Give the backbone structure.
Amino acid sequence: MRKMGFFLTSGILATLVPTTAQAKVTAPAGAKIFRLDGAGVTYAMGVDEKGYLQPLYWGAPLAAGDPLVSTDPVKTGDPVLVKAPGELSGFDPAGSVTLQEYPGQGEGLVNDPGIKTIFADGNRDLVLKYRSHSVRGETLIVELADIKRPLTVTLRYTIDPETGVLARSASVRNGDNRPVRVDQIASAVFTLPVGDDYRLHYLTGRHAAEWQKKDVAITPALTVLESRRGSTGHGNNPYFAIGREGVTSEEHGPVWYGALAWSGSFRISVGQDNLGRIRVMGGYNPYDFSWSLKPGETLDTPIFYAGYSNAGMGGASRTFHKFEVAHIMPGGEKARLRPVLYNSWEATAFDVTEAGQEALAEKAARIGVERFVVDDGWFGARNSDKAGLGDWTVNRTKFPNGMKPLIDKVHALGMDFGLWVEPEMVNVDSDLYRAHPDWVLNYTGRPRTEGRNQLVLNLARKDVRDHLLGVLDKLVSENDIAFLKWDYNRNWTEGGWPEMPVQDQQRVYVDYVRNLYHILSELRRRHPKLEIEGCSGGGGRVDLGILGLTDEVWPSDNTDPADRLMIQDGFTQAYPTSVMMAWVTDSPNWANTRTTSLDYRFLSSMQGGLGIGANLDKWQQEDFTTASKWVAAYKTIRQTVQRGQLYRIDPPSNDNASSATMYVSQDRRQGVMFQMLHSSMWRDNPTPNHPKGLDPSATYRVSVLGGGVLPDGVPARASGAYWMERGLRAPLKGDFVGTAFVFDVAG
Ligand code: DGJ
């Protein structure tokens, strides 16, 4: 398999699904039925006799040559392959009841359109019909055109042969000699068979409470997952999964899922259309958006990735993780495992000094940390969050000889070095703002609302983009930096771009994000060994766009180890553990003042990319001993946790006193099952947890991670079948305790 590449089309970051020699796209000339087949998935559409492109099928694989008929319920049983329905009633004209793969807002459409436009003469009717198709490499390209005006929409499709994950995007081109205003444009519209038993699973929350799972019925009342914040946001993540009531469970039943590769304002709507068909539409958020498309100009959308699994929510997320690791994350499957990291933020906040950081680095090295990261506070006049953002030069009061002595020390201790930056922001109290007050998002003469005392730089401006790239390039070139933690700590408020003609000012929503991607990709190109962590006050900007350009993300500022179990459970519905960082911090935790043991904190954080963010200056010798034990143990299971298959044996929730999560290496030679007890109930809970994913015929040795005695009655060796059938449970007692069992193939 070839690794997916990134390419730029009309300035937008786009990704190609990797290809094999096998043809996965069937688009016979003349037949007007298009079909994509990948592992476990068939997707099909066809052109009806009136020229509409209709979705025909998305689900479990069909046999080659199977008939593909219209899913329109009005025509059920009709032998005609792709049939255009007639008018249903005076209220439902033919165009509005025709199931369209990508409808324009026209002809009385009453559901969410793929695209909505206004022509220069005020015409708002857009009716898209099939014009042509081609297959380039393994990308199917279908061109639709308005029935009257020279406006075309190009739909692109690829399917990953190994996971069946589709990559869909759209472009609109104005072939007219006057501008056309685009008010809404989706990356894709997906259709599921008619049914009243669908449930939508999504992820939502807020700062320090991200990744909460929700599960709602899909009805004609649309559910809208969106961000209007300028970035992805801590609220609804641009991810969805759909199952069927009573049929779909964690390990069984159909699941349709997907995620947008976009780090700006987005909108995904999910609901039943006027005939009960399930429609999922996603792309740029039309809220406060419009794009005046010049004559000859093309506007591209981000990619909407989507997949299908018949193995429940667990199967869906395992398949999606596999795809994301292989084809979204930089470096793919060969990417380096996440090193054990130390971060100074919770220990020192802005009180960063050379001596203080060196002392922390010495202690971090003692416990086996591999990367030392200085967080906020090292630059400009940054003694609090009131000043300094924008001035990315080392603070000479805190680091009199620059960063080199600390970096040398960190290297001498055997760790690599990382720095925190927040390039997109500026404090009013900064040299950058004093020099360029016009560089922030603003409306002329209107207040500039500060968030955390900062304003958002307008990255859509080329001068701002080039300045930031230059500053970051210099920082990385002049210092031996292996890692940047790239933070982003507020939402947009006054999102104006006054220097642009009025009709082009709302391009800011797209150009900002494109330029962010440009800076990140160009920085990576110039510094191929540099790794980057995406952060936005925790998990405020996690999506498949940013994940294509970062090596890991910070899911939440909430570092409480019990809350974190739920955060991690939510996060991994959509995104893989390979990018999910988790720190062990101090107790009581800042977020909720909960007190937990160091063992419990490690067991929680070891279920992702392990980091330590505690104030090591306050640790006692026994803490260092405990931490060294867990860091060493983590390194023995890191490959399995970060790159293995995730099984949710007993998911954490507010209703559940305990939880269990299992990771199994891709070759099934190692499995690790974490059992966590939130709060003891009654005298004992004898219910065993049943491992999943092991090779039933292999013999596994079982041990307690970090050392320890196996519980009574648990044999030291048995087959995978034995463990999965019999299960096992540690006799945990008390509150906030845990353990982990490691299964290694014997011999
Ligand atoms: C928000 C991040 O999520 C924290 O980890 C920390 O880096 C602070 N910003 C620093 O200001």
